[in-house]
């Protein structure tokens, strides 16, 4: 029975991971952070005056590691203060307050970025639009809050998994802020690696031919007009939420699912920390399962690339 | 502490750092141009990607290391970390390809090789003119998986020798932070050595620069290892309580 409880908690973690990474990617779209922001940065130099939000605090991994670690540290401090009095109920207060502090600090960094970067473009006659500035801060903070609260929740569950599931040895030995740092870096790295493609390749160059890589000569010539009126970064989110965001969430969800799944199956094969517990068998089983999943991934990718080559065919055009 | 134990710790840190550097060189990193499908590889920086995959491996390695009450198996914990990082790279590259193919209609193709060295599929006629390739083709996928395995193994190796009670016996959180620090130092130097984008082991850049990269990693890891040895001997990083 405790094993079923452990798997149930793992699925909760996976669900939170999916939501966290999806909102991380959408937050990077609404604030225009990371790699595709190079085009927003370049656009005024190419004569393309735009109304995109221009936020490049740092790489997504680092900015999310910072926001999540701040959230985890505040949450841990509140837990240390209130858990002796209120017990596990202290988490109901600690996690949201920690996430709120993390997302407010992220919003402050985002608010400094926009005037700083756009004022540097004065020589290219790029104005600072105050409605763009004010209008994007709340979506940045709210998207970030959802991502950070999910990461803090994941870290809290993982560091208390033994108590929650009843399986001894299931908790991760790392403290809460360190787990937040680890998952913050990972969620940012994944959001930057996968979700950015939908924004950078497709949405920023939507007026260019579909189905080809964006040529170097297109760089900086971003699409500035929406379905109605002039496009802002808020219009990006609605588009990317249909494919890029969920796909990014799926990446992180699958990683967390299979990483935990192979460890737990390994623990079960190793005797589940009981009298017959054999850590060597548990570790080897986990490694074997991981290699099997990796082989499946290689086969899937080979098949996918082959399918795309057959379906799309060689490049046609100039 | 006995000199032989200190020497083993130093050697493991150097091997871990060099494997981390090798892993970064093997990743198909396209940087910002890859986000616009202007370059082959994954659309982020070397350090970000390698650190993201290595910490995923580190998470699993920490759980596996806790299987043993004392003296965890260095090889099995390191392998667990390596496989974790490899899975992170695999899922990231697969879903990135899904977005390239179904979100942008782009065929994954290498910009540095006319023919895929593994699958022997021709590349040039599928490439958009005036780009440096796009997507994650098969050879880059294989290279990325090997890179993730090498990097994750290296990071977890440093962690386990620092955490193990037979070796450095640091508290788990301190061991993780120190391992992460050494790993990121190596990853940043490797990123400087690559200088932009790289596709993997088939890229001519790899052969040109790998020796310099590994030499730098050796020097950095040696210096970090000496600092760790000093910390062990002086006892400044031992468990002292507090919130950690």
Features:
heterodimer, A: 318 residues, mainly alpha, 10 helices, 0% strand, flat, B: 244 residues, 7 helices, elongated
Describe this protein's structure.
Chain A is mainly alpha-helical. Chain A has one domain. Helices cover 70% and strands 0% of the residues of chain A. Chain A contains ten helices and no strands. The relative contact order of chain A is 0.16. The model of chain A has no long low-confidence stretch (mean pLDDT 92). With 244 residues, chain B is mainly alpha-helical. Chain B has one domain. Chain B is built from seven helices and no strands. The longest helix of chain B is centred in the C-terminal third of the chain and has 31 residues, at 204-234. Chain B is elongated. At the A-B interface, helix 3, helix 7, helix 9 and helix 10 of A face helix 2, helix 3, helix 4, helix 5 and helix 6 of B.
Layout of helices and strands:
The complex is a heterodimer of chains A (318) and B (244).
Chain A: H1 2-30, H2 37-42, H3 60-86, H4 90-119, H5 130-159, H6 161-165, H7 176-203, H8 233-240, H9 244-269, H10 279-312
Helix pairs in contact in A: 1-5, 1-7, 1-8, 1-9, 3-4, 3-5, 3-7, 4-5, 5-7, 7-9, 9-10
Chain B: H1 3-26, H2 31-35, H3 46-65, H4 74-103, H5 138-163, H6 172-194, H7 204-234
């Amino acid at each position: 029975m405790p094993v079923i409880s452990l798997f149930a908690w793992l699925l909760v973690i996976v669900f939170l991971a999916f939501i966290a990474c999806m909102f991380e990617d959408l937050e990077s779209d609404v604030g225009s952070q990371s790699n595709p922001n190079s085009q927003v940065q370049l656009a005024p130099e190419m004569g393309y005056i735009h109304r995109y939000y221009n936020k490049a605090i740092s790489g997504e991994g680092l900015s999310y590691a910072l926001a999540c670690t701040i959230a985890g540290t505040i949450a841990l401090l509140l837990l240390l203060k209130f858990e002796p009095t209120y017990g596990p109920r202290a988490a109901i207060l600690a996690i949201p307050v920690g996430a709120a502090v993390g997302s407010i600090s992220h919003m402050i960094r985002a608010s400094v970025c926009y005037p700083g970067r756009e004022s540097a473009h004065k020589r290219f006659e790029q104005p600072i639009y105050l409605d763009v500035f004010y209008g994007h801060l709340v979506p940045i903070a709210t998207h970030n809050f959802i991502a950070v609260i999910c990461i803090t929740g994941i870290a809290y569950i993982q560091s208390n998994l033994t108590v929650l599931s009843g399986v001894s040895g299931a908790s991760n030995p790392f403290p809460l802020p360190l787990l937040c740092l680890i998952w913050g870096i990972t969620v940012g790295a994944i959001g930057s690696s996968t979700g950015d493609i939908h924004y950078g390749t497709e949405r920023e160059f939507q007026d260019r031919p579909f189905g080809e890589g964006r040529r170097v000569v297109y760089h900086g010539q971003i699409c500035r007009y929406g379905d109605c009126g002039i496009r802002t970064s808020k219009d990006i989110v609605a588009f990317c939420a249909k494919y890029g965001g969920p796909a990014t969430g799926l990446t992180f969800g699958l990683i967390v699912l299979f990483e935990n799944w192979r460890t737990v199956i390994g623990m079960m094969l190793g005797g589940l920390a009981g009298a017959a517990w054999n850590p060597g068998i548990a570790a080897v089983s986990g490694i074997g399962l991981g290699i099997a999943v990796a082989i499946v991934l290689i086969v899937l990718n080979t098949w996918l690339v082959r399918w795309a080559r057959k379906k799309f065919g060689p490049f046609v055009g100039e | 502490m006995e000199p032989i134990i200190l020497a083993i710790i130093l050697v493991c840190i150097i091997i871990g750092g060099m494997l981390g550097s090798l892993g970064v060189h093997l990743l198909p990193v396209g940087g910002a141009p890859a986000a616009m499908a202007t370059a082959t590889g994954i659309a982020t920086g070397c350090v970000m990607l390698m650190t993201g995959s290595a910490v995923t491996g580190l998470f699993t390695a920490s759980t596996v290391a806790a299987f043993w009450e004392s003296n965890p198996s260095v090889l099995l914990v390191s392998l667990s970390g390596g496989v974790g990082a490899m899975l992170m790279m695999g899922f990231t590259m697969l879903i990135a390809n899904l977005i390239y193919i179904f979100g942008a209609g782009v065929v994954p193709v290498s910009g540095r090789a006319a023919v895929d060295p593994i699958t022997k599929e021709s590349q040039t006629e599928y490439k958009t003119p005036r780009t440096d390739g796009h997507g994650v083709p098969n050879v880059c996928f294989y290279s990325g998986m090997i890179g993730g395995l090498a990097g994750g193994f290296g990071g977890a190796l440093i962690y386990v020798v620092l955490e193990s009670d037979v070796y450095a016996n640091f508290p788990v959180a301190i061991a993780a932070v120190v391992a992460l620090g050494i790993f990121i130092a190596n990853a940043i130097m490797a990123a400087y050595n690559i200088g932009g984008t790289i596709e993997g082991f088939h890229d001519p850049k790899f052969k040109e620069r790998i020796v310099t990269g590994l030499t730098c990693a050796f020097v950095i890891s040696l210096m970090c290892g000496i600092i760790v040895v000093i910390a062990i001997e002086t006892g400044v990083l031992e468990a002292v309580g507090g919130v950690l």
